[in-house]
Amino acid sequence: MSQLGLLPRRAWTALLSQLLRLPCSSCIQAVRCHSQDFDIAGQFDPMIPDAECLKIMCEILNGLQLGDFLIKMAWKDVRHEMVAKKGLAPEVADRIGDYVQCHGGVSLVEQMFQDPRLSQNKQALEGLGDLKLLFEYLTLFGIAEKISFDLSLARGLDYYTGVIYEAVLLHTPTQAGAEPLSVGSVAAGGRYDGLVGMFDPKGHKVPCVGLSIGVERIFNIVEQRMKTFGEKVRTTETQVLVATPHKNFLQERLKLIAELWDAGIKAEMLYKNNPKLLTQLHYCESTGIPLVVIVGEQELKEGVVKIRSVASREEVAIKRENLVAEIQKRLSES
């Protein structure tokens, strides 16, 4: 399990979104069958870290633009108390689960407080009370509409001790008439207060809550979307290639690329002394680099460089001293 909880939550969310932003052919296989986890460990007041985990899950899924999603949420002890300890028939519990799924929200949590059987059970009431508090925090976070209280949800793991949740896509972006990809849940998590203590020789209890993002399933969705819409997969984050049509211009290329690097622009060049211009341009097209900076004998004499758009193949000459500003302007507009 990858423990990333030591990172600030905003940094962790941004990091994961960046990792998943544009999958390339070389990195897709490297991350398959993996998930990334975020966990909060420690003794805190009820439902505050739980609400933050759900907020983080929403931020990640919104940032990845996978389509509409819903986070199903339940409370392990509520259903257990209804069926096992309190003795309700399973069909009765399922009937309650049905109306919760159909309507969701804190109003149904409040409705369950009025159930004559649940109202007599201390543990069930405690669980419902925490769920009500959780919905209050989720409302303040502005994500309550993304959460559905769903008693049919069962994660199937024995170590969960409280709230459990999983995110499912309602549909994925597809072209008209195309079948959406069915991938199941793309994120899940919950509270597991007893798990850490199982591995502590002294049995110290460490309350924990966390979430896991299904990287493999998300890549499946992104791959399908890009294939459906004919989007080209970029295999590099490089923004500019520094090129030349002439021999013996390595030093000029090195000067240019150093200037771009110093300005924070992601630039590269071919590691050859005298690469052919056509080879350099083909490299940009195959990897998806959007801009080429070209310097040659004529440009050097006139104190200019050429900027070529790989997509349109249009070239413009600009003064050498204006290079960084022009590149930054184009990148901000793209």
From TrEMBL:
Pfam family, one: tRNA-synt_His
Root EC class: ligase
GO MF term set: ATP binding; histidine-tRNA ligase activity; identical protein binding; RNA binding
Reaction equations catalysed: tRNA(His) + L-histidine + ATP = L-histidyl-tRNA(His) + AMP + diphosphate + H(+)
Anticodon-binding domain residues: 239-330
Ranges where the Class II Histidinyl-tRNA synthetase (HisRS)-like catalytic core domain occurs: 79-218
InterPro entries assigned to the protein according to its UniProt record, in alphabetical order: aa-tRNA-synth_II/BPL/LPL, Anticodon-bd, Anticodon-bd_dom_sf, HisRS-like_core, HisRS/HisZ, HisRS_anticodon
GO CC term (a single one): mitochondrion
Gene3D superfamilies documented for this protein: Anticodon-binding domain, Bira Bifunctional Protein, Domain 2
Signal peptide coordinates: 1-27
Claim: Signal is one of the keywords in the record: yes
GO BP, sorted A to Z: histidyl-tRNA aminoacylation
Annotated residues for binding of L-histidine: D39, R155, Y159, Y160
UniProt keywords, alphabetically: Aminoacyl-tRNA synthetase, ATP-binding, Ligase, Nucleotide-binding, Protein biosynthesis, Signal
Documented EC number(s): 6.1.1.21
Record flagged with keyword Cytoplasm: no
UniProt similarity note: Belongs to the class-II aminoacyl-tRNA synthetase family.
Record-given protein name: histidine--tRNA ligase
Organism encoding this protein: Cebus imitator
Classification of source organism: Eukaryota, Metazoa, Chordata, Craniata, Vertebrata
Gene: HARS2
